[in-house]
Amino acid sequence: MMAPHFAQVAEQYHHVLFAKIDTEQNPKLTQAFNIRSLPTVVLMNKTTEIARVSGALRAPQLKQWVDENLLKI
């Protein structure tokens, strides 16, 4: 389960908004973001997708992914 890892990493970034979307309750949003598998993490800068990763990540892996991709902004 990725949720606790997601929450742990989110606490470390006060300048980044972390949000979870209930894909069953929001099928149009799921389609708009082209979500094909769960979990999927999408890093956005306003309306532009910077990066995405599918599959469960533990906190250290997720933090590394966020750090690497924040450099692209």
Automatic annotation (TrEMBL):
GO annotation, cellular component aspect: cytoplasm
Domain of life: Bacteria
SUPFAM superfamilies noted in UniProt: Thioredoxin-like
Organism ancestry: Bacteria, Pseudomonadati, Pseudomonadota, Gammaproteobacteria, Moraxellales
Domain Thioredoxin: 1-67
InterPro entries associated with the record: Thioredoxin-like_sf (IPR036249), Thioredoxin_domain (IPR013766)
Signal sequence region: none
Species name: Acinetobacter nectaris CIP 110549
Name of the protein this chain belongs to: Thioredoxin C-3
MF terms (GO), sorted A to Z: protein-disulfide reductase activity
